[in-house]
Specification:
By secondary structure, the protein is an alpha/beta fold. 49% of the residues lie in helices and 20% in strands.
């Protein structure tokens, strides 16, 4: 199963593509970010996210998309823009017939580290270990997206 993990954001949207094959270690296929310039009209930023994500899907051909849920935001303006980016992500997934699964930050931390209040660096270290990487993926948004993909695999494997 190939999972496209997403850490949504308007300025920086993290993505990570991971292959999970029974009996084999997970393999990172791609990871990175889609960045949009600040002070650009929101419609242009959302279109950049749409186009970039559509290209990633066309290139990597994932079987499923795992998205980090917007759980809490201190800044309402940030929350709204992240929600708009999530809407674009969900639209692109639906247009490509990708099943969508959503996970809260708490679920991701709990699944990867065993502790729901784990620090960001602990989650990133577990991403490195799970994917057998030499270094923690950068930037942080890409590591978070990979963590979301790994969470999907671990949570769906546990249910079987």
């Amino acid at each position: 199963m190939r999972v496209l993990g997403i850490d949504p954001g308007t300025g920086i949207l993290g993505f990570g593509v991971v292959d999970f094959v029974a009996g084999k270690p997970p393999k990172m296929i791609d990871g990175g970010v889609i960045s949009t310039p600040p002070h650009t009209p929101i419609a242009e930023r959302l279109k950049e996210i749409y186009d970039g994500l559509a290209e990633i899907i066309a290139t990597t051909k994932p079987d499923v998309m795992a998205i980090e849920k917007l759980f809490f935001a201190r800044n309402i303006t940030t929350a709204i823009s992240v929600a708009e980016a999530r809407g674009v992500v969900i639209l692109v997934a639906a247009q490509n017939d990708l099943p969508i699964h959503e996970y809260t930050p708490l679920q991701i931390k709990q699944t990867l580290t065993g502790y729901g209040r784990a620090e960001k660096n602990q989650v990133q270290e577990m991403v490195k270990i799970h994917l057998n990487l030499k270094t923690i993926p950068k930037p942080d948004d890409a590591a978070d997206a990979l963590a979301t993909a790994i969470t999907h695999d671990l949570m769906t494997t546990e249910k079987m």
